[in-house]
Amino acid sequence: MGNKEEVAVVRLNELKEGESPFESRGVSFVKVTHNGKAKKLEIPIKSSGISELVDSFQKLAPQPPAKKCKVEAGSELARDLGIITTQWVYLSDFTDEDYLKTKRKHDSNLGMKIVLCGLDLPMLDVNGNVIKDDEKKVEVLRAMGITGEQFTQIVDDISLLTKWEDSNESDFLQR
């Protein structure tokens, strides 16, 4: 057990409007390299508002187009669908190029919004003014050169602020 980090237990006896007992804060570390030297950027992050954001984005998720297909009685597809006679059905086409392109864009936008919502520091324009518009924030982040790896690291760290790791979860459930 040696290196196991002890997690503080705080019992809530009440929930009071205006307080934020479920909000989590932490840092994300991302690697950057300048002139051959690696540095670790420490970025303050928070969990607040992420689940609402994901829920709202799921409602706007693109749907694949439906294709009319003939399903033959006795085929594996007919068995999967519970069909006993040959008939025409509409099936979602998850391979449609337009759908895949739209879904990639939607997922990318969701990820970017998670990062924007999870950053716990102001984003400033070139004049030092706080940027409030999310589209402008996305534009600035991309212009700053954020990479896919850095982006993924930040998103993962935001989700880990409130997600138990397997070992911690099993300890938690045993109490």
What this model shows, in words?
This protein is an alpha+beta fold. It has a domain at 25-65 and 95-159. The chain has 6 helices and 4 strands, in the order ββαβαβαααα. The chain has helices at 50-59, 76-81, 97-118, 134-143, 148-160, 166-174; strands at residues 25-34, 37-46, 66-71, 87-92. The chain has a two-stranded antiparallel ribbon with strand order 1-2. Strands 3-4 form a two-stranded antiparallel sheet. A hairpin with a 2-residue loop joins strand 1 and strand 2. Helix 3 crosses helix 5 (148-160). It is extended and about 65 Å long. The model is unreliable at 168-175 (pLDDT under 50).
In short:
This protein is of the alpha+beta class. 40% of the residues lie in helices and 18% in strands. It has a domain at 25-65 and 95-159.
